[in-house]
């Protein structure tokens, strides 16, 4: 009886209570019709509870997300497919999809009867203002009798993941000269000292320019060999993100770390589109040993989608990984916070003579941390080491900060 009582709704319990009172009153005052009506009020909730508890159905749930990877602020459409794998038709039920809170309100919908072996699909949309790997499901189901006297709740296991990528801002490739003069007034040229030798030799084909014949290879092989069209050497770039909690300010989507991730995604995609072989150095790539690998824009965005701040003791591994890549030469971009002059000095030492280093120093105070260090001394330290560095405020746009940074002069001010 206790299990049946637990599935009764407020209406069902009210029916039970009212029926018991009417039965008692009918017996005391001798009104048989009143007693019969009371018995009916008591019996209806009991019958409803028994039907709700004993009716068994089995369903298979599948989720399909379109697209599977979205950017912050972009909509994703989810299709829920209900397949009835039992022999009986399912009752009408109320379904509620459980979501991570950043995806918005939980969608609720009424699902009609599904015959055996049939499939019913329902669509809903989600949007996230915060990047990351977010969960869809499990699905909560509520089965209720037609009178609303009893219901039964169940959770259908099974989840899916939705990857929300950081926003990518288009960055201008036009580098306007700064206000300085001479060599100090030239803006940052996005070049590196080391490239890859892409010159290749192949056999002569009809129509090839005879001026491209490679005589040493021809003499060595005995066949006509020609020099392949030279392709531009692929330049290397290293993008470094500071994951230390003490180097960042603010919380949630408005924190300086989220700004850093967005900036890193925008810069990395911009450099890939510009023909650079990009290395991403952050806590996640260092842990998986992927920092030494060149990555595609999609791979970079997937890593940055789940990037998080780490304990302050982890900067040694990140700096060592950055040092190993920077020692081979290349274009450096560092997105760091103003915490620890010794760490800033180590970052400054990553730039090799003759290479270009650009640094975005996040002003953690403007993002909400009042006890953070001032950004300007760290900017000055990087500039003295030959970097082009600027301080970034909370409300500053990534594209504007990049434009100012690429127009900055070595050792100069904004």
From TrEMBL:
Chain segments annotated as transmembrane: 12-31, 37-54
Keyword Transmembrane: yes
DUF58 domain segment(s): 201-285
Keyword Transmembrane on entry: yes
InterPro entries listed in its UniProt record: DUF58
Record key words, sorted: Membrane, Transmembrane, Transmembrane helix
Superkingdom in the source lineage: Bacteria
Protein name listed in UniProt: Membrane protein
């Amino acid at each position: 009886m206790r299990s049946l009582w637990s599935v009764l709704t407020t209406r069902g319990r009210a029916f039970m209570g009212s029926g018991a009172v009417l039965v008692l009153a009918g017996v005391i005052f001798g009104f048989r019709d009143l007693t019969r009506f009371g018995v009916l009020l008591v019996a209806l909730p009991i019958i409803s509870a028994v039907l709700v508890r004993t009716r068994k159905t089995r369903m298979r749930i599948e989720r399909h997300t379109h697209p599977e990877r979205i950017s912050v602020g972009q909509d994703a459409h989810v299709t829920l497919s209900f397949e009835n794998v039992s022999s009986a038709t399912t009752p009408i039920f109320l379904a509620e999809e459980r979501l991570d809170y950043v995806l918005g309100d939980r969608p609720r919908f009424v699902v009609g009867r599904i015959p055996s072996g049939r499939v019913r699909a329902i669509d809903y949309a989600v949007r996230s203002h915060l990047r990351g790997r977010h969960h869809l499901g499990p699905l909560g189901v509520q089965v209720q009798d037609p009178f609303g006297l009893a219901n039964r709740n169940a959770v259908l296991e099974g989840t899916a993941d939705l990857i929300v990528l950081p926003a990518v801002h288009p960055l201008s490739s036009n580098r306007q000269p700064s206000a300085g003069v001479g060599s100090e007034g030239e803006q940052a040229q996005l070049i590196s000292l080391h490239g890859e030798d892409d010159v290749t030799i192949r056999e002569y084909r009809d129509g090839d320019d005879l001026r491209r014949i490679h005589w040493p290879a021809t003499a060595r092989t005995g066949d006509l060999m020609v020099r392949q069209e030279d392709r531009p050497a692929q330049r290397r770039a290293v993008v470094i993100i500071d994951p230390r909690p003490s180097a960042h300010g603010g919380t949630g989507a408005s924190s300086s770390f989220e700004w850093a991730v967005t900036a890193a995604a925008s810069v990395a995609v911009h450099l890939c589109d510009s023909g650079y072989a990009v290395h991403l150095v952050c806590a996640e790539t260092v842990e998986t040993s992927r920092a030494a690998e060149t990555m595609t824009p999609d791979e970079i965005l997937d890593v940055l989608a789940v990037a998080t701040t780490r304990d302050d003791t982890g900067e040694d591994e990140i700096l060592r990984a950055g040092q190993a890549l920077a020692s081979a030469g290349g274009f450096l971009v560092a997105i760091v916070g103003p915490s620890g002059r010794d760490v800033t000095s180590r970052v400054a030492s990553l730039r090799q003579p003759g290479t270009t280093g650009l640094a975005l120093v996040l002003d953690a105070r403007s993002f909400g941390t009042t006890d953070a260090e001032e950004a300007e001394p760290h900017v000055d330290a990087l500039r003295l080491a030959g970097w082009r560095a600027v301080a970034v405020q909370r409300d500053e746009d990534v594209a504007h900060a990049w434009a100012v940074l690429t127009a900055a002069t070595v050792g100069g001010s904004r």
